[in-house]
Amino acid sequence: MECWLKYSEKPSLNFKDRYPEGYRNSHRNVPVIVPWSALRDDPEQILAGRPPLPECRTELHTDYDGDCVRWGLTHHKESAADCCQACLDQAKAAKPGEKKCNIWVYCPSETGCYSPDKYEHKHMECWLKYQDVTVRSQSEISTIHDHQQSIWDLATDSIECPVYM
């Protein structure tokens, strides 16, 4: 079981300059994992609280499409690590036939997080999602990425969960 953090604060203006190899795999348009150490060592990218577990892989400014297993508007956690743990716990506790969390989105920004949907996403929102990864390859999974003008491109086919970043 692996869960993925989709760091959700708007990117700093020079993020691409600081992490060009970790920003986007441009030839396939696939997100590249940014190591936790890069987040920890960069004061502009620090996430409050303890670092997430190794199972909690992180991708900055990215969100996967997925069906909600826990609605984030009313599900708040103190840290990204706590949000990931909630995803892991939900997956372990899911009953047979229920969707198990394998994607999570956390809003660390005290001013809220950007989203192209109708909601105003608040600090500490923790969205737990599920996506059937056996249906699509990693490069085909619907994602939202930071692009020009610090907005996310919408590439989703799910109506069960609002797009969130």
From TrEMBL:
Domain of life: Eukaryota
Protein name: Apple domain-containing protein
Originating species: Gossypium barbadense
